[in-house]
Amino acid sequence: MNAGLMFSSETDMWATPQDFFDRLNIIFRFNLDVCALPDNAKCEHYFTPDMDGLAQPWGGVCWMNPPYGRGIGKWVEKAYRSAKDNGATVVCLLPARVDTRWWHDFCAKGEIHFVKGRLKFGAAKDNAPFPNAVVVFRPTLSDVFI
């Protein structure tokens, strides 16, 4: 992926850097990649665009690097609701778009960890032109007992 493509709207799919995922997987032990392509899936179990991850139930410990286009808010809401309503833990790699509605409505309610520097996605020659954050949604005691 070249820098020109990163600034264009030709794609909204950004393959997760393997070493970045591996470090998170040591901590979380993911069992499901909720939005992947067969050639970049990070877990044995994954949903492809044809499977429509938004229409599937999410459970266990999920990895989510969603398409970064206009529909990203739907993915973030699904991650939030899957944790709150279904008891899933969903770890999301997201562009740090702190000025958006979806960020305030959902990410602000999760655990936010800003990524230092800029990631290099997939086979890209250059780093991404945007900052990222890892946002974790998981059940809380108030979800269970209150």
Automatic annotation (TrEMBL):
UniProt signal peptide: none
What is an annotated GO biological process for this record, any one?
A: methylation
Print the keywords alphabetically: Methyltransferase, Transferase
GO MF terms, alphabetically ordered = DNA binding; site-specific DNA-methyltransferase (adenine-specific) activity
Query: Which named protein is this?
Result: Adenine methyltransferase
**Organism of derivation:** Oryzomonas japonica
Upper classification of the organism? Bacteria, Pseudomonadati, Thermodesulfobacteriota, Desulfuromonadia, Geobacterales
